[in-house]
Amino acid sequence: MHPVFAGVPLPSAAPSGCYDAGRGSCLLRWDDAAFADFTAACAALEQAGFALQGETVLEENHHRTYAADVTVHLYYCASEGVLRLIGDPSAAFGPAATDPTRVCEPALWQFEVDHALIDCGMCYILRAGNGHFFVIDSPHGYSIRDDERICDFLCAQTGGETPVVEGWFFSHGHDDHITQFLNIVEYRLPQIEIRAVYYNFPPADHRDSAAWCPSSSRVAARFERVLDAHPEIRRVRLHTGQRFYIGDICLTVLCTHEDVFPASLENYNDTSTALLAEVAGSRILFPGDCAAESDRVLCGRYTETTLLCDVLQVSHHGHAGLSPEFYRRAAAPCCLFPVTRIKFDEELPRQAANRTAIALSKEYYIASDGTVRIPLPYACGRVERLPDETFENFSGIYQLWTYTYSQLYKDLLYLTYLSRGGRALPQPPALPAPQTEA
User: Fold this and answer.
1) What is the pTM of this model?
2) For the CA atoms of 346, 348, 352, 354, what is the dihedral angle to 10 degrees?
3) Which CATH superfamily is domain 107-385 in?
4) pLDDT, tens digit, 9 for 90 and up, residues 51-95
5) What residues are paired with 65 via a beta bridge?
6) Domain ranges of the chain
């Protein structure tokens, strides 16, 4: 048995499977389980002196977190008939109670990342009523100045005071979701205060890691090294069903890579953690890059009761991700696409999921068109689009990624960028006229 379970009372039946979840944690699962098995496991933990830290019920899914020398998180999903028990050496938890302080209007921003050299990446910023921030993901390293732009943006919202990022959440470990956060921590921490990070990445030596892009493992390893060098930033490892608060924002974990086991994680996007935010009476859903296996978990467990939301981040930048059924259950009147306009247009004809999300919405916004501010509670027509700051430089993208776009189309995109309020780009210097011999 995994050493994390030393001193942890376990069900007498042998588990159906064992999953190394990374950073010293391990998941055991019992198939063909009943709710009585869940309550019996909880009673055994309590009898052994484990203290209840949190309890969440999402439809027919029951979750509890206990703590003693180790953290034990267990949950029972009736639709699957599966009991899961996770042993985690980490003892860090998110705040367990709301802070009703109100000094400002809660808001959500879809931040316009710089798409000059990359057409992916995403960053969302939630502001709680107490003025503190909760940030979701960060741009790619090829979004060259976005560490500076994000810090400047946060400072602008606080009138020049040091912004407090109460929590920074990472859906998964791809380059285009965590790299600029690392640059901020390494080079810009005096400019902003980051108190905690929330995430759950799979281990680098996962059985399916050979199928992952090598850069994913490198950037995830750098992520851990950078945080090791900054112990003042609390690390909170999230598990499905856990709930925590940032000011008056209530956050609930709906899915992690631990739920996919024993299915394949060869698609690294399925390591995404899906998160539901509730603030000021509005529900906002962030599935990160959740793909087919995550969709099986989410649609298998949750109906409209859990997934119905006001604002929805469309999974995997609008590329192949979650199913049309997921978007039907979410039925969000406002959809957010963290992608460039050109990739959005390319994907729309071949992605039924995108078309379903848009058909059910009243409004949708594409990140490269400019940062948008959504006052909360959400109401259609109140969304404010800020000036378009960066240009989708498809010549630069072509050089790195070998995409092919006609000059005519690129010129049209530039005119569209200007029409959205974009800043005119400096013209390249004229080439000298060729010299002719006398």
Assistant:
1) 0.91
2) 120
3) Ribonuclease Z/Hydroxyacylglutathione hydrolase-like (3.60.15.10)
4) 999 999 999 999 999 999 999 999 999 999 999 999 999 878 998
5) 54, 73
6) 3-88, 107-385
